Known about the structure:
The chain is globular and about 50 Å long. It is α+β, with helices and mostly antiparallel strands. α3 packs across α4.
Amino acid sequence: MPLPTEPQVPGQIIAHYDVLDAHLARHFVPEEVSYFEEQSPIGFTLDVFRIRPAGAHFQILLTSGLSTLPMQVPDKVLDPLRYRYVELMMVLPATWRFSAVVPEHPASDWPVAALKQLARLPFQEKGFLAEGHTVLHDAHYRPYGPGVDFVGAVLVAPVTLPEIFSRIQSPHGPINIWSVFPLYQKELFFIHQQGWPAFRSLLEVNEVYEMMHPERVCLVE
């Protein structure tokens, strides 16, 4: 994919585009990786890879560009350098189909749009993203797209791929890859009231992991 040769915004580390490309090349063959190019970049280039490992029952969407800008991690966070750089992924069934031009059909393309929306959030709100953080699609609890009831998401540690995949070493600091797990409204409220560790226990007890299944049962009564 064409990458910027100069920083597009102050403080951008464009070398992280190449770091991510090299990371993918170590784990997948070229035929397994494609990408949805951003048609109208806002501020900085933010693409989404589509990874379809041969013979796998899943496929992965992975952002490219979020880690080129350091997030503003609060000083109260222990070892803030560990959390400054991140990319996001979402695991979907291998049978999930996308439009030729994304996003064209909200009913099928919303995962790409959701990842891009979430990846720009740290810089729009001057915050940071890490495991257990929750986000809303919008303030009115509208779902991500037609035919789906997910209104937000929580970031979880990836488990579909080997652990070595979810942490990339860079001269500027580690790049963490967090998985985006879509949530129903009741689940989002549960996390806000009971905390992320309590919901993580629900995931473990119900043997629900990071893959996005639009028809999955809500884990909260």
